[in-house]
Amino acid sequence: MRASRVTLIFTIALMAMSILAACGQTPAAPAAQAPAAAEQPTAAASGAVTKTYADMTLCFPQLGAESDWRTANTASFKETATTLGIKQLVFSDAQQKQENQISAVRACIQQGVDVIALPPVVEDGWEPVLTEAKNAGIPVIIVDRSVSADPSLYAAHIGSDMVLEGERAAEEFNKMFPDGGAILELSGTTGSGAAVGRAKGLRNKLNPNITILDTQTGNFTRAEAVPVMQAFLKKYKPGTDFQGIFIHNDDMGIGVIEALKAAGINPGDLKIVSVDGTRGGFQAMVDGWFQADVECNPLLGPQVMEMALKLMNGEPVDREVLTNETVYYPDKAAELLPTRQY
Ligand code: GZL
Q1: Sheet strands side by side (includes 88-93)
Q2: Is 342 part of any domain?
Q3: How far apart (Å, rounded) are the C-alpha atoms in residues 37 and 170?
């Protein structure tokens, strides 16, 4: 290209740059497209932007993996989080240790999550960390079991009425032993809202002619229930000293069955009432071991996340949401077993 043409082009470019510089601007990149009206966040009555599930970071410091019930409870939260497309489910497993749950809640407070859904392993000892969450402006939903802390320290409780579950079990024994009798009790984790409530409910409604011969915790696990039942069988004569067993969850019930079989006891020799209504419990009813299984529903994910979103948007929520539950019986167990979600 001849020099004179180069000079001309260079001069024109310089002139263009000097005009733009005089206007205080350099050639701008194309402006970012403003979001279409439909993508604009809606303004709530207060004028604040309405949060959606996509904005939600939910802390779920799960207490452990001790039972089929707990496995189903965890699955309910993880599946619901995926279905709703929440931003993040901050999940942890505390191995049934309160100190681990408390550490997990503190980590969530540090992270600045939107809501904490706490399934407390035991009732007591939550005031300090609930106070920290409150002071950080993070609402807490107590999930499943209850806490003894002042209700002002948390937003709501969603779970089962454990006392009613115990009362329902008592009513089954009252029907089976109209002329009285004696039962053994395998209780859940010591100090847990589930074990405390079920024990209380049993004692509320058990007829006075039925005695609770002995009670021991099996910590809601299959493995820990076996030695407890073996010890009971060494101490008491089945059929003579006791005629029934109340078991606080199906997982321990399966451990109890293992010990009974080893002792040569047959299905139906003893009248057993369990709690949860898991597939294992339904199978135990089909096999004749359980005479009733009191429902305790673990599928709490949808209710909790719906409430969490309301809390994020400053909407009022019910402070106590109890799950509607029933009692299952052997006559329908075979038919219902294939339909069970947990
Ligand atoms: C009850 C729940 C209990 C179940 C057990 O809501 O906390 O914990 O009954 C589980 O199976 O271990």
Answers
A1: 88-93, 57-62, 115-118, 140-143, 156-159, 320-322
A2: no
A3: 60
pTM for this predicted structure: 0.86
4: pLDDT strictly greater than 70: no
User: Quick check: is 339 in a domain?
Assistant: no
- Could you tell me the pLDDT band of residue 9, with boundaries at 50, 70 and 90? low
* Together in a domain, 227 and 123: no
Q: Domain check: are 196 and 288 in the same one?
A: yes
Where residue 49 falls among pLDDT bands split at 50, 70, 90?
confident
In a domain, residue 27? The reply is: no
* Cα 137 to averaged position of ligand 1 atoms, centre (Å): 29
What pLDDT, in 10s, does the model give residues 255-284? 999 999 999 999 999 999 999 999 999 999
pLDDT cut 70: percent of the chain above it: 86
**Which of 142, 254, 296, 300 has the most ligand 1 atoms within 8 A of CB, as the residue to mutate?**
296
Report CA(188)–ligand 1 centroid distance (Å).
8
CA 12–ligand 1 middle distance (angstroms): 80
Q: What is the mean pLDDT of residues 133-149?
A: 98
Which residue type, as a one-letter code, is found at position 161? D
Pocket test for ligand 1, best of 62, 101, 189, 249 (most atoms within 8 A of CB): 249
Other beta carbons within 10 Å of 266: 10
Question: Do 303 and 154 belong together in one domain?
Answer: yes
Q: Please state the atom number of ligand 1 nearest to the C-alpha of residue 220.
A: 12
Range of the domain at 286: 162-296
Is residue 102 located within the same domain as residue 228? no
* 310 and 217 share one domain: no
Question: Once rounded to an integer, what is the mean pLDDT over residues 51-76?
Answer: 98
The number of distinct structural domains making up the chain is 2
Q: Report yes or no on 44 lying in a domain.
A: no
